């Protein structure tokens, strides 16, 4: 109920009309009076004006999720498999701590570090890697992707850890006893067993990234790095543009519906097994 | 902790093979210490936490810069300067707004969530599957979707709710509701039905069984929910920002977001650090409550908490 009313409102506004004088949207509740004006306009924009934004968002999300996966897997693998009891507890506490530190603060920390006269540029100058300060915050894709990785990687590590921790170490020994080397054991035993964890982690990390606008505004703010989230955020704040925001939300949902359903199904299955 | 930790003694390492080089035998040894993995892990932890330490330090900056420490450490941006966290009227008001929103949300969401969890646990008919799954949605759905949707609802449909505190609380309640439901249900699964059934066999009416047996067993989950909902509402800015009315209704998180886009002073760092301290205190309190409430019960370790997320 809590979710359905807001979502239906989005639909009605997307298919609704705009008051010609006040520029406020008028939701249309009955499907048979829906107009497709805004929706077709929005879809046109996706393939026209906004095409680059959509492609860019996909590229950013794919790169950032891939980095999250590789780095996150390494960390989760070490903690689940090699850390002894005390080290494991300490590491888990440190790995969970970003959860209760506000996302804003974590971005703010990078805003501090990446200033023209910030500590990162000073370090680079000290190491003679650059002679002039680098404007990290002036609309660089690298910075935005780094911000996304930094922001979302904790959500990748925990599901991976949960699945890796459940793998019975005896299985790995069986693999070795049967003659597989460390690399082969990893590829043939550990990796397939952790596949659900990888998929869950990827979904948890990449879906919110698609709707992320704040990382981008905070770390870049330049139109060179605009993402889907920024389009929605901009249009919702402009009067008369709210139907466009609603349409963009619907398009976003349409893109994300498959991975969302996959996630819900696999979680439901996991709950049954438990 | 269910599994024995893998702790290998280097028994097998001491079998040098004359035919192969040392590097090769080191590489092939399956029980070698994973030094590279360990270095990457510590490196990651440093990378994830050191920037925060710098940000906290900068909040104690004497100078105006938010990029580096100038002129030593002081409380200028916490207390001294007219633009400091506790003296700037805007920031000062935002602190109270933050605390007000979080406490109200927490007090509404947790009882509601517990009731939902109990209901979902006993509802096996049609639609229960769908209801269960909706609870998981807010984990994966981008927050902007719900934020924009709630904004549209409040602004154009439920026009009697003004944008501002009430709307913000409604939005936060909607967004946060799934946390207590999921935490409490996970706990109910691990408790099982036996205690409640035993109570009813001994003649307790169903309501008494819930109140006297099930609820006390659920206290740890309830404490955890309080902490998570409070901490998360305090930090939330996506939903809250769309539902903010006048500037005076913006909580600290929204202020931090708005100021960060300009050229922030260390007062913003102080504000962020303040939120961090507040959440940490709540988490510690809840942990103490959790320990006290779960005394003598099967205790779930940090592992299982990680597993639930």
In short, what is this structure?
The complex is a heterodimer of chains A (274) and B (309). By secondary structure, chain A is mainly α.
Care to describe what's here?
The complex is a heterodimer of chains A (274) and B (309). With 274 residues, chain A is mostly helical. Chain A is 71% helix and 1% strand. Chain A has one domain (51-273): MetI-like (MetI-like fold), CATH 1.10.3720.10. Chain A is built from 13 helices and two strands, in the order αββαααααααααααα. By secondary structure, chain B is mostly helical. Chain B is 69% helix and 0% strand. Residues 1-19 and 301-309 of chain B have low confidence and may be disordered. Chains A and B meet through helix 1, strand 2, helix 3, helix 4 and helix 5 of A and helix 2, helix 5, helix 6, helix 10 and helix 12 of B.
Tell me the β content of chain A.
under 5%
CATH superfamily of the largest domain in chain B: MetI-like
Major beta sheet summary of chain A: 2 strands, antiparallel
What's the CATH architecture of the largest domain in chain B? Orthogonal Bundle
How many distinct folded domains of chain B?
Answer: 2
Keywords:
heterodimer, A: 274 residues, mainly alpha, MetI-like fold, 13 helices, B: 309 residues, 2 domains, 14 helices, 0% strand, globular, disordered C terminus
Q: How are the secondary structure elements laid out?
A:
The complex is a heterodimer of chains A (274) and B (309).
Chain A: H1 4-14, E1 17-18, E2 25-26, H2 37-47, H3 51-81, H4 85-96, H5 103-113, H6 119-126, H7 141-166, H8 169-177, H9 182-193, H10 195-210, H11 214-219, H12 228-236, H13 242-273
Chain B: H1 22-28, H2 35-59, H3 76-80, H4 89-122, H5 128-140, H6 143-157, H7 165-176, H8 178-191, H9 194-201, H10 206-235, H11 238-242, H12 252-260, H13 266-293, H14 302-308
Helix pairs in contact in B: 2-13, 4-7, 4-8, 4-10, 5-8, 8-10, 9-10, 10-13, 12-13
């Amino acid at each position: 109920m809590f979710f359905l009313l807001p979502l239906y409102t989005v639909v009605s506004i997307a298919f609704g009309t705009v008051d010609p004088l006040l520029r406020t949207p008028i939701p249309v509740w009955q499907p048979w009076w829906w107009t497709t004006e805004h929706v077709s306009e929005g879809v046109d924009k996706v393939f026209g004006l906004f095409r680059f934004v959509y492609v860019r968002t996909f590229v950013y999300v794919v790169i950032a999720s891939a980095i999250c996966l590789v780095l996150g897997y390494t960390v989760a693998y070490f903690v689940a498999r090699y850390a002894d009891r005390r080290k494991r507890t300490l590491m888990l506490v440190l790995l969970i701590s970003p959860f209760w530190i506000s996302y804003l603060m974590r971005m703010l920390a990078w805003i501090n570090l990446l200033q023209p006269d910030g500590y990162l540029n000073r370090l680079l100058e000290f190491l003679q890697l650059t002679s002039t300060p680098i404007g990290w915050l002036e609309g660089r894709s690298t910075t935005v992707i780094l911000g996304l990785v930094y922001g979302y990687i904790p959500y990748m590590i925990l599901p991976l850890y949960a699945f890796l921790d459940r793998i019975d170490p005896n299985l790995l020994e069986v693999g070795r006893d049967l003659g597989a080397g460390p690399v082969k054991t990893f590829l043939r035993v550990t990796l397939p067993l952790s596949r659900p964890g990888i998929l869950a982690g990827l979904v948890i990390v990449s879906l919110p990234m698609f709707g992320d606008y704040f990382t981008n505004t905070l770390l870049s703010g330049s139109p060179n790095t605009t993402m889907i989230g920024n389009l929605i955020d901009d249009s919702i704040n402009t009067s008369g543009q709210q139907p466009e925001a609603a349409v963009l939300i619907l398009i976003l949902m349409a893109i994300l519906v498959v991975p969302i359903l996959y996630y819900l199904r696999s979680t439901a299955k996991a709950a049954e097994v438990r | 902790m269910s599994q024995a930790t893998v702790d290998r003694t280097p028994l097998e390492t001491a079998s040098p093979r004359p035919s192969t080089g040392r590097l090769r035998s080191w590489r092939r040894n399956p029980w070698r210490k994973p030094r590279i993995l360990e270095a990457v892990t510590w490196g990651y932890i440093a990378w994830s936490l050191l920037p925060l330490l710098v940000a906290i330090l900068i909040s104690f900056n004497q100078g105006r810069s938010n990029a580096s420490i100038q002129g030593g450490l002081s409380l200028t941006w916490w207390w001294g300067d007219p633009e400091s966290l506790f003296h700037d009227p805007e920031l000062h008001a935002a602190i109270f707004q933050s605390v007000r929103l979080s406490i109200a949300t927490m007090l509404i969401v947790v009882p509601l969530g517990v009731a939902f969890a109990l209901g979902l646990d006993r509802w096996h008919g049609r639609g229960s599957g769908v209801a269960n799954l909706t609870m998981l949605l807010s984990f994966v759905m981008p927050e902007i979707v719900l934020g924009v949707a709630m904004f549209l609802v409040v602004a154009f449909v439920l026009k009697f709710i003004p944008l501002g505190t009430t709307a913000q609380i409604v939005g936060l309640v909607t967004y946060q509701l799934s946390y207590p439901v999921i935490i409490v249900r996970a706990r109910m699964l691990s408790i099982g039905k036996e205690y409640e059934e035993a109570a009813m066999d001994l003649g307790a009416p169903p309501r008494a069984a819930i109140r006297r047996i099930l609820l006390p067993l659920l206290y740890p989950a309830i404490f955890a929910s309080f902490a998570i909902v409070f901490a998360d509402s305090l930090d939330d800015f996506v939903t809250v920002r769309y539902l903010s009315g006048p500037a005076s209704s913006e909580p600290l998180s929204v202020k931090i977001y708005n100021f960060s886009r300009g050229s922030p002073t260390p007062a913003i760092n102080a504000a962020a650090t303040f939120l961090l301290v507040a959440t940490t205190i709540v988490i510690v309190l809840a942990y103490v409550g959790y320990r006290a409430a779960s005394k003598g019960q099967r205790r779930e370790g940090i592992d299982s908490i990680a597993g639930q997320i």
